[in-house]
Design goal:
Strand order of the largest sheet: 3-5-6-4
Structural class: alpha+beta
Order of helices and strands: EEEHHEEEH
Distance between the termini: 9 Å
Radius of gyration: 12 Å
Helix content: 25-40%
Largest sheet: 4 strands, mixed
Length: about 80
């Protein structure tokens, strides 16, 4: 199945490592450090037309990417559970 995360971006559900709320997770210095490192190494893909509310970590074989989404983590989780695009 596939998961639409915004801005026409669709990812394979089986490649999703985690869906995270950006406001809650960015309070941790470790998460901020991880996101900064991911951005510097070119792993961040902006799939948000507006201010991002969540981020999705995807690992497909040996490639890892961090997708920023304007949809809430709860909405993405609900879509993943129901299989709705």
């Amino acid at each position: 199945m596939y998961l639409h995360i915004g801005k026409g971006t669709v990812i394979e559900e089986k490649a999703v490592v985690g869906i995270f709320d950006l406001d809650i997770c960015s309070q941790s210095h470790l998460t901020r450090k991880y996101l900064t490192m991911a951005e510097k190494t070119g792993l961040v893909v902006n799939a948000a037309e507006d201010i991002p509310k969540s981020f999705v970590i995807v690992q497909d074989r040996e490639k890892t990417a961090v997708y920023l989404s304007q949809m809430s983590a709860a909405t993405l989780l609900k879509r993943a559970e129901t299989g709705a695009l």
